[in-house]
Amino acid sequence: MIDELAKNLVELKKEFVKIYDGKSQIQEIIPVSKSKSLPIPQSDLDLLHQFATKNPIYYNSYEQIIAGIPCVVYEGDINKYWLNSIQHGSSHAPFSPTWIMSAYVGVSLAKDLGYHEVIDIGSGDGRIAFCAKVLNLESYSIEIDDMLIDLQKLLIDIHDFHPHCSDVTDFDYSSLNLTQPIFFIGGLAQMGGIELASGVFKKINSIPLLKKKTGWVFAGTYSQKYRPDPKNVAGWGTLIDKNKLKTIHTVSLPTVWTFHELDDTPYIFAQHI
User: pTM for the full model?
Assistant: First the structure.
């Protein structure tokens, strides 16, 4: 069911690209209500709309029917947050978000795979952690940039997804009392994701009881403008092999950076062998 949901979201995005004539830096859509192709509970959709409406990166919204589905189009600008995020000396992956709907689908898969907690690493505005709370999972958002953390604090009265302002490579993950967590790593492998993930691996590997129960999600790319990985897996093959992981699922979802591209972002789910 999750794969079908992801496929239908990608198709809806393709139709949106065909008709979008705005000039906004970023744009995304959220259905107004449950439909046959996107059978998401209305209460969940309402919460996703609340997140977008209250989020200061979006400055405009309007309703539009796309492929027969009534949607709200959200237009935004992340320039000041992107610029601020790259000023930190230990920042590895500048802020560029996935779609809110993609975050919801990705976390739905994590829940379906049996994980109990979602840790949103390099979390940006916290949308993945927020979606985990919508889906009744515990979640934690870890972000080094204070401006983005301040943004997240504007949103936690909808759902408290526990934002932490910290370098993810220094954070004490044992303090969260995790049972079966899954870590979503922010950033492509070629855009700082490898460094980000490697630092978190080092911390989690020092907690023996947690290591085997932990899942990982990596945002990949097949774009030729990025350096390929000799072991492939959308840029993550070498890291996956080095850390003795196996890929258990891959799902493609729309992101801000693939709006004008034919291929959407493959999210690779992996676990320890």
Answer: 0.95
